[in-house]
Amino acid sequence: MTTATPAGPPPADLRNPAQLLAALPYLMGFRPAKSVVLVGHQGPTGHDVGLVLRGNLPRREHRAHQARALASRFATGPHTGVSLAVVGGRRRPGSPPPHAGFVDVLADELAGLGVPVIHALWAANIREGAPWGCYAGSDCGGELPDPRTTVAAAAATERGTVAFDSRDELEALLSPRSPEALARRSAALARLPCPDVNEAASVIRAAFKRQHRGEGPPTDEEVVTVTSALTLPEIRDMCLAMAIPAETSTACEAERLWLTLVRETPAPERAEPAVLLGFTAYMRGDGAFAGMALENALAAAPGHMLAKLLKAVLDRGTPPEVIRGLAAAADPMAGLGLEPADFDTEQAV
User: Fold this and answer.
1) What angle (nearest 5°) sits at the alpha carbon of residue 303, between those of residues 302 and 309?
2) pLDDT, tens digit (0-9, with 9 covering 90-100), for 220-232
């Protein structure tokens, strides 16, 4: 299993191995464990963070396959190099860090693509005081600093984001709140006629107002009508446009609504709010959560074309600005009849 984050996550000091390792939870959105993480270097000096990719540590017989799969993701991007980090395992005294054979295979695959390995690092885990080292020599290593003191942590705090303790903890945000409610709503959605655009816009506007007032979980009727409205391409395009500019109060409020709907909507209709959630997270550079949301959309509706498109460009490490045009044409405030006060988070309950 892999997790990709597009270029543009919180900054990290790529020149300092210990700081880079400590920054991984904030680059990934969660604390990696039993993982290999590849951090792409970009920019004229090679000090800018590019694609961040996580994969499972493979068994010996699967090393070559996993190495090819991971390295190929850096074949087309403008990367000047890659730092590798293995997280997990115990280092025996006088021996190289664990999984050295896999690191060699992966470095060879990257070299074959013209992508040099800048750092090859290991850490037992990503916590303050954890031992770390380099595969290049025994004189490189020590104990990790507190991850909360890194540049990436400061940037994440300013953005209002957090690093979860595990991938499972982050993924749990998408779990259904009530399976019984999903069954009721699935039957209701099957009977509901498709709304017209004006009616659908009114439904979405009301949903945002309820979200802003903090009225709690939506009712069956509210979920059914909102989900039905999101199936209209015109409405979906206006909702996509709420994701830009990223991290504004509009984008944040929209992301909260899409997350609520993912937890409250049955398949296959769940794909609509899930793809909106994935796009919004993508635009703010959170590739881990965007990927989970898009996988959720495809699990609900395997043929969903927008979800398949976004997942493909995310897996290639495409920077958010490259696909921003998907949402640039629509004017959600005018089209949905919303006002700036509907997204003023300081006034929210």
Assistant:
1) 100
2) 999 999 999 999 9
Query: Does pLDDT of 253 surpass 70?
Result: yes
> In this structure, what token pair is assigned to residue 123?
């850490």
Cβ(116)–Cβ(110) below 8 Å: yes
First vs last Cα of the chain: how many Å apart? 39
pLDDT in tens, 33-49: 999 999 989 888 888 88
Residue 317 is given by DSSP the state T
Taking each continuous run of H as one helix and of E as one strand, the counts in the chain are: 14, 7
Give Cβ neighbours of residue 53 (< 8 Å, ≥ 6 apart). 2, 3, 4, 5, 37, 38, 40, 70, 73, 74, 317
Per-domain residue ranges of the chain: 2-162, 171-347
If you write DSSP's letter for every residue of 20-82 in order, what string do you get? HHHHHHHHHSB---SEEEEEEEESTTS-EEEEEEEEEPPPGGGHHHHHHHHHGGGSSS--SEE
Residue 39 bridge partners (DSSP): 52, 83
